[in-house]
């Protein structure tokens, strides 16, 4: 946002779609009013929130009806509102209990339909009529997968239970309402209405309204990092009415006191209520409540009354996780799974039909047939009954079901758990990547969603916030315009030869922690004893900057005991920059309490009593403060956005000065600076008393409080004298231009969605190379739907004109894109989007935006950001990624296919809502181009490979059944069938899925165009699935028929040849995998060759068990040379088509990846040769 330096985030107008109210929290009883300012009432303790809560606290305020409130009696939980059941303070984050773990965990696992399929198969195999495998062997694969997942879930939930026990058994200090003494009580036993005391650095046990603090002014500092991730201190305040007699031994809890407040809700930034104390009604707001999950800092103690406990606390109400996302590959897998199901059904139908035909042709032989004996020749009474035959129709049906059991592994159950292990391994290497480590914030890459790693390799659109994402969000005051005069010749203090902000106090030197460049002419004007009009306005300008904020100055020790630093604490970097600027010009904010501030004005300490504070809100786009000055005058200082401030200026104003100020603002914005306009007016006694009266009535109202306060603020902020304007620089992050250039080469379109004004956004766009001078800009700034329609139609016509005269782009892997097509950029503002989004104009906007190289959206609200993402996500198959750093980016991050949070200056709300988190925007390049590329190609190959290896095995079983009268008997033992997917072939796929690299990091960074392989689905498509299934059929033929033809005339039994088939298929599929591995290491060697050895050992062990079929079978065949010759022949014959296809493709139709891989090999060989020659 431009000009909203007063907000808590970089783009104040984006903070919330809810119209915010203003908050001014102070006592409202007459006893708290002291005589001051020549008879004007002086409120010694004004209640206002900290800078950390400005816009969000306002935005969260909602109107409260009496029916929506609850009563809380101070110190007496038994009298709390009888209409509602108040929960105790115990919390539960664990998902399971000991009793429900097994049924609930099984139920959740079977939400995967594939698990249901394998369960049905296992159940069918238990029926005697259709049992094929042993009952244990049929259940083993599914049981193994369920057990592994259950153990993982149980461990995770055990950790939650342990955390819950520790949390619930922490000690709290609770007040006895009769004696006033505090006694220890476990957190889980605290009840609504009880008075609780919290000491410094302790956690807050429940949501509680402050009654008293150790600070005489009622101020308390809390850290909310466990609640919203923000590390900056927040200020909270106790009401003066309760500060007079804090609960304790001297003052037991007032039994007549009670609180009426809103029902529990998830809004952590809002609270609405009032309190009856000594017969007086006191208003309560967000600044008067501290929430569970916070910690008390820089305050010795606080006392409060519990209003929400346990499951009703705001932190627990917000504990639900974000909606789960599924990767595109996993979604596409469903298509192949359906095709495999169709193949499976086809095989089963063939078996059933052929079996029916065979039974019909041999009906006369069934009385003696081994598997279909009609007659029972044993000594039974019912000899006339059929013995093992149920009729032709039932036998065909049973054959179909038995075929499903035999061929079940056509759909690989091991694939799902393998994918989880691979994603876990990929996440580990992303987290440990030093190239994604941010030294400035000491933060590593975070992988918060393990199920979409591969989506990072297919992104086509990146939607980025500007402030804090592209820029550092570290604001620095650059220039000022005062009475239309531009002061932008800033130099450092050292260059000036003096420091203007040092303050002597108690034989110690205090000075601000940061210095700001100052304009020498403006410094001389401020220090000039002559009282010119320009000098007076300059002083009022910087006085307004020092007063009109919510910054809290904290004194920090230094190595020099005689010198201390003033650290201005505030969540808004804009406000911090303005206060540091005022200090550098000699207006140093030294102290802030709830009722006054102390400012050193050019060496003279002055106290300003704060009589009123209206926080920023998105309607007014202004913030104002009412202060009583040392000369007993009452002044209203206002700062806000230019478009809101120029609408409330005095009627009689110097138009030339206004025009000059606007010109300076335009110049600042064109330089990419964030602008702010400052104004003031002096209030008469009558105006102040009128404001005070209506404000006190409105602030204690439960019904319509927000609307009343907004009206009061708008009414007082009129007839302002414009003092000047400021320009603040938000510098680009390191590497942003280069990152955007790389992503554009990779075929990724970068859209910037910001709340800044258009000039600022365009300037930043040029700075980060998002916009270029060659681009044709399409600007849509419309104030009506018809105007938007016309603008969009004109844009479409312009594109068609350019397309007619420009050829399509030609892509070259080495040089990038070479084209004479005219590049275009769409620039649109939030007002236009109001008339476009969710209307019939969305389709036109989609057409225009997708043909533009760059889209820049200015002045957009958070929901509009999400709407822009949805525009692409819902109308195309393009993968979307959203990246931001603030709470106003959360909706956009959650809407996109992949959401990334930046650990920036605006707290960690975006991180907490994201799928991945990192410290800098530039890390997107290695994340997408390197890890995204690797993750996609690994996972895509692993999925297809799992389909292939299981299909080979199924087709071997199918060929064998054709020679057994379709009886579904198998030569391969049931244990080998069960272990094939779970043990024999699983580990190599996991290792390759984690470690394989088709190209090096250096190469992928050098040629961003290689990323387009993922965008084009080169590694996973229906075509590749068909090819690999064709290869599977051929390899199954080689595995089955070579041994069959060799041993058909021999005396070798079926079990022995079955062992040969088992070893041959494992050797073949692992060599197939080895042939496709690009990067070998010892782990890959151990996994692939080790699994072949492990298979041989397992087959030997199985054949050594006398109770199992095929006892000693392997030893009858393994000792012959023909056995090893068959293995060799199977491997050569099976791999010949695959090898030939790879050779032909790489030589005749090489992909970009293959070309660059060959180039790498050539360059490495050339480099090695050169080194040898030099030696």
TrEMBL record:
Pfam families: Cation_ATPase, PhoLip_ATPase_C, PhoLip_ATPase_N. Its main location: membrane. The active site is at residue 465. Residues 911-1151 form the P-type ATPase C-terminal domain. It catalyses: ATP + H2O + phospholipidSide 1 = ADP + phosphate + phospholipidSide 2. ATP binds at residues 465-467, 575, 616, 639, 674, 754-756, 859, 865, 888-889. Mg(2+) binds at residues 465, 467, 885, 889. This is Phospholipid-transporting ATPase. It comes from Zingiber officinale.
């Amino acid at each position: 946002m431009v000009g909203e330096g007063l907000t808590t985030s970089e783009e104040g107008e984006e903070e919330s779609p809810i119209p915010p109210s203003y908050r001014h929290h102070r006592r409202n009883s007459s006893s708290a009013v002291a005589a001051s300012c020549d008879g004007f009432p002086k409120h010694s303790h004004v209640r206002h929130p900290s800078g950390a809560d400005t816009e969000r606290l306002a935005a969260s305020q909602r109107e409260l009806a009496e029916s929506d409130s609850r009563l809380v009696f101070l110190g007496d939980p038994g009298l709390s509102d009888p209409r509602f059941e108040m929960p105790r303070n115990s919390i539960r984050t664990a998902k399971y209990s000991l009793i429900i773990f097994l049924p609930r965990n099984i139920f959740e696992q079977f939400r995967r339909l594939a698990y249901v399929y394998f369960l049905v198969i296992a159940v069918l195999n238990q029926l005697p009529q259709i049992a094929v495998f042993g009952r244990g062997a049929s259940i083993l694969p599914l049981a193994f997968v369920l057990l592994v997942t259950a153990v993982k879930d149980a461990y995770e939930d055990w950790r939650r239970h342990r955390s819950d026990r520790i949390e619930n058994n922490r000690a709290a200090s609770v007040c006895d309402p009769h004696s006033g003494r505090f006694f220890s009580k476990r957190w889980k036993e605290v009840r609504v209405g009880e008075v609780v005391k919290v000491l410094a650095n302790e956690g807050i046990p429940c949501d509680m309204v402050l009654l008293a603090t150790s600070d005489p002014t009622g101020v308390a500092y809390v850290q909310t990092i466990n609640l919203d991730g923000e590390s900056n201190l927040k200020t909270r305040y106790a009401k003066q009415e309760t500060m007079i007699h804090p609960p304790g031994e001297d003052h037991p809890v007032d039994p007549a006191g009670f609180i009426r407040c809103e029902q529990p809700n998830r809004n952590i930034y809002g609270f609405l209520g009032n309190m009856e104390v000594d017969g007086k009604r006191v208003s309560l707001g967000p600044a008067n409540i501290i929430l569970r999950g916070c910690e008390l800092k820089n305050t010795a103690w606080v006392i409060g009354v519990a209003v929400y406990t346990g499951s009703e606390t705001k932190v627990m109400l917000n504990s639900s996780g974000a909606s789960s996302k599924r990767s595109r590959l996993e979604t596409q897998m469903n298509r192949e799974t359906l095709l495999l199901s169709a193949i499976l059904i086809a095989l089963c139908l063939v078996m059933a039909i052929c079996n029916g035909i065979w039974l019909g042709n041999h009906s006369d032989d069934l009385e003696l047939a081994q598997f279909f004996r009609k007659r029972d020749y044993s000594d039974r009474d019912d000899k006339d009954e059929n013995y093992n035959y149920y009729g032709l129709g039932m036998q065909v049906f049973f054959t179909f079901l038995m075929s499903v059991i035999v061929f079940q592994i056509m759909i690989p159950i091991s694939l799902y758990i393998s994918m989880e292990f691979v994603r876990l391994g990929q996440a580990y290497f992303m987290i440990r990547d030093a190239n994604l480590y941010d030294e400035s914030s000491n933060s590593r890459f975070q992988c918060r969603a393990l199920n979409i790693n591969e989506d990072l390799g297919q992104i086509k659109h990146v939607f980025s916030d500007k402030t804090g994402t592209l820029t550092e969000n570290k604001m620095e005051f650059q220039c000022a315009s005062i009475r239309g005069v531009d002061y932008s010749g800033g130099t450092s203090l050292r260059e000036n030869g003096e420091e203007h902000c040092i303050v002597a106090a108690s034989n110690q030197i205090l000075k601000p922690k940061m210095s700001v460049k100052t304009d020498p002419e403006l410094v001389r004007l401020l220090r000039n004893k002559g009282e010119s009009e320009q000098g007076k306005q300059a002083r009022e300008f910087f006085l307004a900057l020092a007063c009109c904020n919510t910054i809290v100055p904290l004194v920090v020790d230094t190595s020099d005991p005689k010198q201390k630093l003033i650290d201005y604490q505030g969540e808004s970097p804009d406000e911090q920059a303005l206060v540091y600027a005022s200090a550098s010009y000699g207006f140093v904010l030294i102290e802030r309490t709830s009722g006054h501030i102390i400012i050193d004005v050019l060496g003279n300490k002055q106290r300003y009593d704060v009589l009123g504070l209206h926080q920023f809100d998105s309607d007014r786009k202004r913030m104002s403060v009412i202060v009583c000055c040392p000369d007993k005058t009452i002044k209203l200082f206002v700062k806000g956005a230019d478009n809101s401030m120029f609408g409330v200026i005095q009627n009689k104003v110097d138009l030339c000065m206004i025009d000059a100020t606007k010109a300076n603002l335009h110049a600042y914005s064109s330089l990419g600076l964030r602008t702010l306009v400052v104004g003031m007016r002096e209030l008469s006694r009558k105006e102040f008393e009128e404001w005070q009266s209506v404000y006190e009535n409105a602030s204690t109202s439960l019904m319509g409080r927000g609307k009343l306060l907004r009206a009061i603020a708008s009414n007082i902020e009129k007839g302002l004298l414009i003092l000047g304007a400021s320009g603040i620089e938000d510098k680009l992050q390191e590497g942003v231009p280069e990152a955007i250039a790389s992503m554009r080469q990779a075929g990724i379109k970068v859209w910037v969605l910001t709340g800044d004004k258009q000039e600022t956004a365009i300037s930043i766009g040029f700075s980060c190379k998002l916009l270029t001078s060659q681009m044709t800009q399409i600007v849509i700034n419309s104030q009506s739907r018809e105007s938007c329609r016309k603008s969009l139609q004109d844009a479409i016509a312009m594109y068609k004109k350019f397309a007619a005269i420009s050829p399509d782009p030609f892509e070259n892997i080495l040089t990038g894109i070479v084209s004479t097509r005219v590049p275009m950029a769409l620039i649109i503002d939030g007002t236009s989007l109001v008339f476009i989004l969710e209307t019939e104009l969305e389709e036109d906007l989609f057409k225009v935006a997708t043909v533009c190289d760059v889209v820049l959206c200015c002045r957009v609200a958070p929901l509009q950001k999400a709407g822009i993402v949805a525009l692409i996500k819902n109308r195309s198959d393009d993968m979307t990624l959203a990246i931001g750093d603030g709470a106003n980016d959360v909706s956009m991050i959650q809407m996109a296919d992949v959401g990334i949070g930046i650990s920036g200056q605006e707290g960690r709300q975006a991180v907490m809502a994201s799928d991945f988190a990192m410290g800098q925007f530039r890390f997107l390049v290695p994340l997408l181009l390197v890890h995204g590329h690797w993750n996609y190609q690994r996972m895509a190959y692993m999925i297809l490979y799992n389909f292939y290896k299981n299909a080979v095995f199924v087709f071997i079983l199918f060929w064998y059944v054709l020679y057994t009268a379709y009886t579904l008997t198998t030569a391969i033992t049931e244990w080998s069938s069960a272990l094939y997917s779970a043990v024999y072939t699983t580990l190599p796929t996991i290792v390759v899925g984690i470690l394989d690299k088709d190209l090096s990091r250096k190469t992928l960074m050098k040629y961003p165009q290689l990323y387009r392989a993922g965008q084009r689905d080169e590694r996973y498509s229906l075509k590749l699935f068909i090819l690999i299934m064709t290869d599977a059929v051929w390899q199954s033929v080689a595995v089955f028929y070579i041994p069959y033809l060799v041993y058909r005339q021999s005396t070798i039994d079926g079990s022995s040849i079955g062992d040969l088939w088992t070893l041959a298929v494992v050797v073949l599929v692992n060599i197939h995998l080895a042939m496709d591995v690009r990067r070998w290491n010892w782990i890959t060697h151990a996994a692939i060759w080790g699994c072949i050895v492990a298979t041989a050992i397992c087959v030997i062990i199985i054949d050594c068990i006398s109770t199992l079929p095929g006892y000693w079978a392997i030893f009858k065949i393994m000792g012959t040379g023909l056995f090893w010759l068959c293995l060799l022949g199977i491997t050569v014959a099976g791999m010949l088509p695959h090898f030939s296809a790879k050779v032909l493709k790489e030589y005749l139709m090489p992909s970009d990846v293959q070309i660059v891989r060959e180039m790498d090999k050539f360059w490495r060989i050339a480099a090695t040769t050169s080194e040898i020659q030099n030696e």
